[in-house]
């Protein structure tokens, strides 16, 4: 059991930056979960943005975010971050933080963490708006 809570969303002009935070609490150690960020615009599916392994040694990104977004985690603070730079008009959405109990030894973990169905717990989301 873990309870993610997102923060850090807001409005920014195109080309600007935001850093989202996701703090997690619960009985199970935060370091036992892989963490991911997804986003959802009105009327659209929840799409993968980035994910990070339990130790933080492996990261995965959606193609359009590669080079602009950076996911990181601080297990001592039970927090995962998404640094978003050079924001584009197509980036606005509600951004969600999820926790996955997938084993780090799963050979398919890189692809599985791109699917929202592989996450066991979700936060309520934080809104990101980008103006032209």
Task: Summarize the topology.
Layout: E1 3-7, E2 10-13, E3 18-25, E4 34-40, E5 47-52, E6 59-61, E7 69-74, E8 79-84, E9 93-100, H1 109-112, E10 121-122, E11 126-131
Parallel strand pairs: 2-11
Antiparallel strand pairs: 1-3, 3-8, 4-5, 4-9, 5-6, 7-8, 9-10, 9-11
Description:
The chain is mainly β and 132 residues long. The chain has 1 helix and 11 strands. The strands form 2 sheets. Strands 2, 4, 5, 6, 9, 10 and 11 form a 7-stranded mixed sheet that branches. A 4-stranded antiparallel sheet has the order 1-3-8-7, with no helix packed on it. β5 (47-52) and β6 (59-61) form a beta hairpin. The protein starts with a strand and ends with a strand. The model has no long low-confidence stretch (mean pLDDT 94).
Unreliable stretches covering 5 or more consecutive residues: none
Number of H- or I-type helical stretches: 1
Q: Compute the gyration radius: what is it?
A: 14 Å
Number of strands: 11
Order of secondary-structure elements: EEEEEEEEEHEE
Distance between the termini: 40 Å
SS-derived structural category: mainly beta
The profile of the biggest β sheet is: 7 strands, mixed
The global form is globular
Helix content: under 10%
Mean pLDDT: 94
DSSP strand content:
over 45%
Summary of the model, kept short:
The chain is globular and about 40 Å long. With 132 residues, the chain is mainly beta.
Give keywords.
single chain; 132 residues; mainly beta; 7-stranded mixed sheet; 3% helix; 46% strand; globular
């Amino acid at each position: 059991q873990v309870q993610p809570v997102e923060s850090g969303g807001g409005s920014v002009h195109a080309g600007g930056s935001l850093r989202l935070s996701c703090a997690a609490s619960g009985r199970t150690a935060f370091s036992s979960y892989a963490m991911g960020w997804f986003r959802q615009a009105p009327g659209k599916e929840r799409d993968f943005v980035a994910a990070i392994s339990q130790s933080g040694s492996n990261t995965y990104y959606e193609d359009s975010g590669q080079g602009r977004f950076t996911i990181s985690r601080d297990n001592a603070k039970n927090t995962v971050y998404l640094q978003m730079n050079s924001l584009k008009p197509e980036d606005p959405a509600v951004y969600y933080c999820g926790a996955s109990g997938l084993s780090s030894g799963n050979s398919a973990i890189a692809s599985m963490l791109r699917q929202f169905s592989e996450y066991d717990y979700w936060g309520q989301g934080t809104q990101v708006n980008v103006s032209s």
